[in-house]
Amino acid sequence: MLCGLHFWAEASLDLFFLRTLPDIDTLLEPLERALAEVLIPSITKRNCSQTERDLLQLPVRLGRLGFINPVENAGSEYKASVSVTAPLVNQIVAQAHEPADEADVNELRRRMRREKEEVLRRKCDNLKRSLPEKMQRVVELGGENGSSNRLSVIPLKEMSFDLNKREFRDAIRLRYDWPIPDTQSVCVCGVRFTVDHAMICKRGGFIIQRHNELRDLEAELLKMVCYDVEVEPGLQPVTGEELNRGANQSHDARLDVHARGFWERQRSAYFDIRVCHPHADSYKDLTLKQLYKQQENEKKRKYASRILEVEQGTFTPLVFSTTGGMGEECARYHARLGELLATKKGEIHSTTVSWIRAKVAFALLRGALLCLRGSRGNRKIATNIHETDFEIERGLAGLS
Predict the structure, then answer these.
(1) Angstrom distance (rounded) from CA 94 to CA 57
(2) What is the SS3 assignment for 271?
(3) 314-321 and 268-276 as β-strands: parallel, antiparallel, unpaired?
(4) Are 280 and 245 in contact (CB under 8 A)?
(5) SS (H, E, C) 86-132
(6) How many CB atoms are located within 10 Å of the residue 157 CB?
(7) Can you give the residue ranges of every domain in the chain?
(8) Residue-level pLDDT at 102
(9) Which residues, including other chains, have CB under 8 Å from residue 253's CB and lie 6 or more apart?
């Protein structure tokens, strides 16, 4: 199942005739019915409501899937095409031998893109206001920077950007908070099993695995641009230094990753990762900005003063959400990482940052899918075959 389905959606539906033929809205109604009633249900395994169809037609960067509605887009696409090609038409009518001024054409293209973006954002805001409160949160989360990267990449297996069909459909359902089929009704911990519970339940060790996946990914990326990179470095003991209230003063305290030379030459930089679930009941009254800031401040309260006073280094909390978003400091860290990586490899900065975000997005997605589908049952103790004495066990069991 393709992860980069929006390539098909935007490329095949942004058809030539939308931009060249006027007044064809009604002629495109059968195509729209096929999209809404056949194609989208076959991909998502869900019959979408009209509101959901309106959401799915918005672009990926606004948190949707990019399945445009040809009926609604025909008029605006034709109008934009007429505006952009007007200088060329004027030159043809005047039988001029020079091509149209390229600067004028480019300015018209930029203006049409701005107008289109404004229309899409207004449509998105209007749809958002008409939705239930939790669905509004879902739409906001889907529009965060980085949360849509997994939908805008080609599903290459060698880059671990591929998903099987159940993983893909689960990812779509998680994105829109749709019901997940074929899941247990009660968790092994005794609580009713829901998606929100699956993302925070500690049974099975999936929360730790999700955290460690991100930790190891960030460490590998840092090794490409820094030296003295270490996973779970131990901190020096506190010996009389004055730390802020609430600071972690434990002798065996550790952080997730250490690297030297990230923010400043020769200086140690420490990073600690947290993955929060924004749909948890304890966060429902917080905006996304408040949620990320709360998590960042909690990490800083525990470790910032100790790193500054004892280690003489810098501390950066890396806060992610289960939906693919990240806090302000985490975004700043990835921008710096992209800058260093692009400089070292001679790549374009924006391309490098997009690649990093895609890697992070898939790590978060696979962690969420593991929490959703992983088995939390009691583990069986495996028999150690290598140390088994068959004669003794045969006698104990009375085997013939």
Answers:
(1) 40
(2) strand
(3) parallel
(4) no
(5) HHHHHHHHCCCCCCCCHHHHHHHHHHHHHHHHHHHHHHHHHHHHCCC
(6) 7
(7) 5-151, 205-373
(8) 87
(9) 234, 235, 303, 306
Query: Dihedral, CA atoms, 144, 150, 154, 160, nearest 10 degrees?
Result: 150
Distance (Å) of CA 285 to CA 30, 137, 278, 299: 43, 11, 10, 21
- Give the CA distances from residue 70 to residues 74, 79, 287, in Å, rounded to whole numbers and listed in that order: 6, 14, 35
Across residues 224-243, what is the average pLDDT?
Answer: 91
Segments of the chain assigned E as strands: 227-231, 257-260, 268-276, 314-321
Residues 131, 51 contacting (CB under 8 angstroms): yes
At 276 the three-state DSSP class reads: strand
Q: Other C-beta atoms within 10 Å of 25: how many? A: 15
Long-range contacts of residues 126-132, Cβ cutoff 8 Å, at least 24 apart = 127/51, 127/54, 127/55, 127/58, 130/51, 131/51
The maximal CA–CA distance of the chain, rounded, in angstroms, is: 105
- CA-to-CA distance for 4 and 131, rounded, in angstroms? 27
User: What digits encode the pLDDT tens for the residues 127-165?
Assistant: 888 888 888 888 888 888 777 777 777 788 888 888 888
CA–CA distance from 99 to each of 87, 102, 248 (Å)?
9, 8, 69
Radius of gyration, alpha carbons of the chain:
27
Rounded distance, CA 311 to CA 21, Å? 68
- Measure the CA–CA gap between 13 and 66, rounded to whole angstroms: 10
Tokens of 393: 């066990």
pLDDT digit string, tens, across residues 255-300: 999 999 999 999 999 999 999 999 888 888 899 999 999 999 999 9
Q: pLDDT tens across 338-384, in order?
A: 999 999 999 999 889 988 998 999 999 999 999 999 887 665 555 56
**Is pTM, for the whole model, over 0.85?**
no
